[in-house]
Amino acid sequence: MHEASLARAIIASVSEALDERHIDPRRVRRIHLAVGELAQVDVESLEFAFGFAVEESSLRTSSLVIASVPAVLTCTQCGSRNLYSAEFFFTCPLCQGACVVEAGKEFDVVGLDLDDAELDDDSGHFVRSACRAVEGVVT
Ligand SMILES: [Zn+2]
Questions:
Q1: Which of 51, 67, 71, 110 shows a CA-CA span of 20 to 30 A to 37?
Q2: Given pLDDT bands bounded at 50, 70 and 90, which one contains residue 95?
Q3: What are phi and psi of 74, to 5 degrees?
Q4: Cross-strand pairs, 98
Q5: Residue 134 pLDDT > 80, yes or no?
């Protein structure tokens, strides 16, 4: 199952990033994940799979918090930015030009809440290194 391997990938990359910083994984309370509208991830299945996978890991005290990221498309012809919709698909609603995805394919760990501190934007490097590990599995 796709979502089961994603859940394991999240746990593995967060564990690795914590390890590098000598942070006890038992301190993690919440793992914040951003999932793009076009990332082809079933959020419910992922939450379910994570619940199982995390029990067998050193991150068992943590829960997964998933934020959905809307898809934004940019037109290669007129440069307009539009929210993705099934009607327009990858065609510009203004000029019918072809569009490229600017946002909406994310599958990133964007932050961790620890028991007595928060690591988010201030700790960008840590978070990004975790993200890259996850992306590697998705693509
Ligand atoms: Zn256009």
A1: 51
A2: very high
A3: -115, 135
A4: 91
A5: no
Taking the C-alpha atoms of residue 76 and residue 99, their distance in angstroms, rounded to an integer, is: 6
Is 2 annotated to bind a ligand? Reply is yes
Give me ligand 1 centre to Cα 70, in Å.
Answer: 19
> Taking each helix axis from N to C terminus, what angle separates 2-20 and 124-138, rounded to the nearest 10 degrees?
150
Which residues lie near ion ligand 1 (Cβ < 5 Å)? 75, 77-78, 80, 92, 94-95, 97
How far apart, in whole angstroms, are the C-alpha atoms of residue 46 and residue 11? 12
Fold of the CATH domain 2-138: hypothetical protein PF0899 fold (3.30.2320)
The pLDDT tens digits of the residues spanning 10-61 come to 999 999 989 888 888 998 999 999 999 999 899 999 999 999 999 999 999 9
Distance CA 37, CA 44 (A): 14
- Count how many residues are written for the chain: 139
What are the residue boundaries of the structural domains of the chain, listed by start? Answer: 2-138
Q: Write down the pTM of the prediction.
A: 0.77
| Percentage of the residues of the chain whose pLDDT score is greater than 70 | 82
